[in-house]
């Protein structure tokens, strides 16, 4: 699922009276948004336990990552509505929208979120603070954000000609291979649509307690009706896949989603990754090799050591099929770090994927490049609910 349309909210405005209320209360809401988010999820899962069992990732809930994501998104969106100089959070909204469609989220579920979120706001801030006027102002913030997302998500569903939410498919595991002690690849076959290079699929498995848990994995290769994913064993879903799923078994996968997508064109391509962040890069390299691309391609990868570099063989084989390819590996056990300034990135499209600290460091290095060596565009993603916090 993919669309070139962007979920912008720059043309959306609060009424003047409500804008002043949001401005006045934003510091208070922002200071308490972490507690509000915790109470919101507790209340929502109490009222709708099926959401925690079958839709939300329990690992992210235990770690608090999902709550942090909600806090960041609501506060960022509200700030944009009341400050004309604040950046339009297009990237934030795009990532949320793609994640939602990869989970089959539909319009009716926004009402569930609204009811429980505002109950949490009143619980934390108190009824004397959340007056009828304050509630109306923040309700308008929520529904503007919801409307932008709902419109964008409907366009994503329509891009694959499916009804809203109809993204889950029963797929058969036709191949399973261990790349390292911690990374395994799975090839899945079923009624699957074509993925854009760099996209992911949500994998659903039923655990021992009966809960269906979901986790997103990048698609590293595809054929008609087939996705291949690389899975690092970390958390409930990946552990279940490694220990319990065999060739011939049936699991669930969603139609491909994700906004970290290789942009068509003639610009040089620069892929920069760390650890299992190599997976979307393999998907992009596979596309470039399969289509016979002659775009100059540079691949820079950092890992703890060569021994744990799970996709070294795959990326090497793919790069050998590209006529103008440059590759550099950096291994921390050798004291090596990626040196962006050592490479010519002028006019290139750069794609980043890895952990938070890694991406922040690479983005700082990119920003420090002189203008004549700067890339044309930078796209990034990490395997966390909080990737928009990097903006």
Automatic annotation (TrEMBL):
Residues 166-263 form the FAD-binding FR-type domain. It comes from the Bacteria. InterPro entries: FAD-bd_FR_type, FNR_nucleotide-bd, Globin, Globin-like_sf, Globin/Proto, Riboflavin_synthase-like_b-brl. GO terms for molecular function: FAD binding; heme binding; metal ion binding; nitric oxide dioxygenase NAD(P)H activity; oxygen binding; oxygen carrier activity. One of its GO terms (biological process) is nitric oxide catabolic process. Keywords: Heme, Iron, Metal-binding, NAD, Oxygen transport, Transport. Residues 13-154 form the Globin domain. It is an enzyme of class 1 (oxidoreductase). Its EC number is 1.14.12.17. It catalyses: 2 nitric oxide + NADPH + 2 O2 = 2 nitrate + NADP(+) + H(+); 2 nitric oxide + NADH + 2 O2 = 2 nitrate + NAD(+) + H(+). PROSITE patterns: FAD_FR (PS51384), GLOBIN (PS01033). In the C-terminal section; belongs to the flavoprotein pyridine nucleotide cytochrome reductase family. This is nitric oxide dioxygenase. It comes from Corynebacterium humireducens NBRC 106098 = DSM 45392.
């Amino acid at each position: 699922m993919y669309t070139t349309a962007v979920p912008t909210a720059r043309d959306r405005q609060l009424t003047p009276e409500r804008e002043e209320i949001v401005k006045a209360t934003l510091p208070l809401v922002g200071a308490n948004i972490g507690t509000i988010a915790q109470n919101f999820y507790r209340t929502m899962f109490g009222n709708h336990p099926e959401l925690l069992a079958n839709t939300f990732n329990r690992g992210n809930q235990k770690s608090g990552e999902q709550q942090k994501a909600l806090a960041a998104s609501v506060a960022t969106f509200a700030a944009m509505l009341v400050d004309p100089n604040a950046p339009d959070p297009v990237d934030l909204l795009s990532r949320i929208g793609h994640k939602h469609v990869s989970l089959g989220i539909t319009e009716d579920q926004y009402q569930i979120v609204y009811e429980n979120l505002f109950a949490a706001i009143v619980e934390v801030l108190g009824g004397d603070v959340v007056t009828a006027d304050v509630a109306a102002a923040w309700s308008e913030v929520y529904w503007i954000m919801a409307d932008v997302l709902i419109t964008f998500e409907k366009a994503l569903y329509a891009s694959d000609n499916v009804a809203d939410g109809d993204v889950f498919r029963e797929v058969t595991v036709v191949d399973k291979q261990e790349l390292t002690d911690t990374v395994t690849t799975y090839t899945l076959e079923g009624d699957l649509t074509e993925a854009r290079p760099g996209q992911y699929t949500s994998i659903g498995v039923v655990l021992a307690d009966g809960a269906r848990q979901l986790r997103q994995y990048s698609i590293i290769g595809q054929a008609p009706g087939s996705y291949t994913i690389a899975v690092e064993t970390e958390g409930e879903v990946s552990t279940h896949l490694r220990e319990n799923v065999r060739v011939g078994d049936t699991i669930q996968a969603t139609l491909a989603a994700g906004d970290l997508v290789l942009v068509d064109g003639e610009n040089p391509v620069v892929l920069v990754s760390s650890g299992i962040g190599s997976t979307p890069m393999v998907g992009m390299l596979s596309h470039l090799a399969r289509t016979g691309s002659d775009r100059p391609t540079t691949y820079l990868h950092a890992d703890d050591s060569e021994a744990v570099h799970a996709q070294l063989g795959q990326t090497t084989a793919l790069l050998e099929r590209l006529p103008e390819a440059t590759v550099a590996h950096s291994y921390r056990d050798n004291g090596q770090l990626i040196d962006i300034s050592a490479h010519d990135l002028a006019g290139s499209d750069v794609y980043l994927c890895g952990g938070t600290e890694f991406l922040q460091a690479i983005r700082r290095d990119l920003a420090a490049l002189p203008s004549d060596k700067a890339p044309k565009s930078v796209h990034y993603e990490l395997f966390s609910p909080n990737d928009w916090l990097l903006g």
